[in-house]
Amino acid sequence: MLYHLHVFSSAKDGQDEAYNQWYDSTHLPDVTGLDWVNSGKRYRLGAGDAARYLAIYEVEADAPGDVVPKLRGAASSMRMSDTLDPSTVSFRVYEAHMPVA
């Protein structure tokens, strides 16, 4: 079944440029390279909030509760960055509300 995984995050203070370089050139390709991830796209919040960035991935899983554990399991093989502020990371999994044509 298809789901949308929303990942909210921010860079550590003063690290936005390096964080975005890592996310765009390393992390996004690592995640979208997983065989159960169909696509990914990043967004930046206009103002406010602790999590300044959002990545939305289209993923395949048997159930919505499987998505985040699958990502966490794959994270051990990904190249992470110390520019990421882990206190701002949160996940949300969405499924289609209406039938998909």
Q: What's the number of domains?
A: 1
Q: Count every helix, treating DSSP H or I runs of 4 or more residues as helices.
A: 2
The strand order across the widest sheet is 2-3-1-4
How many angstroms separate the termini?
A: 14 Å
How many strands in all? 4
For this structure, the CATH topology is Alpha-Beta Plaits
What's the CATH C level? Alpha Beta
* Shape-level CATH architecture: 2-Layer Sandwich
Coarse structural class: alpha+beta
Order of helices and strands: EHEEHE
Helix content: 25-40%
The residue-averaged pLDDT reads 94
Rounded to an integer in angstroms, the radius of gyration calculated over CA atoms is 14 Å
Poorly predicted parts: none
Overall geometry: globular
Compact description:
With 101 residues, the chain is α+β, with helices and mostly antiparallel strands. It has one domain: Alpha-Beta Plaits (2-Layer Sandwich), CATH 3.30.70. Helices cover 26% and strands 29% of the residues.
